[in-house]
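Pasting as-is:
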Amino acid sequence: MSKKVLIISTSMRKNGNSDLMARAFAKGAEEAGNAVEIVSLADKQIAFCRGCFACQKTGRCIINDDAIGITEKIAEAEVIVWATPIYYYEMTGQMKTMIDRANALFVKDYKFHDIYMLSTAAEEDASACERAITGLKGWIACFPKSRFAGSVFAGGVTDKGDITGHKALDEAYDLGRNA
């Protein structure tokens, strides 16, 4: 059965290493017959959450920017994939800001169940992404119909294109095929 897959690329560097990993996942998911959309935060205007909780009453954030449309896409997708470079052993600020702004989902009937993380870092040690995964799992814990379904990490990639030929691209593709 075909699933609706939303991949959120959180890097500000277009066509960077995490973008390439997101595309590998997308290719696998599409070849498996899923409907896939990639949303890049690089060209989006997303303000910080104000903590006003108006979204808990209305189901919509009071800040009128690109986060509203992305939150609606998240609610409608069955599979969510977050692709992020790792900065200082953590997810990008853009990813965290988007997660915070998706607070309106608490009062919505969301469809997502499987959540994945794709991450890249200059650091080669696989533990470099652990804090980012922990942060994402904190978000997932707030949505009882969802689960952390898996991750792929590519270490030792700094400059654009360093991920070319990296085994993580094949792993992301396989993860997408089986999503």
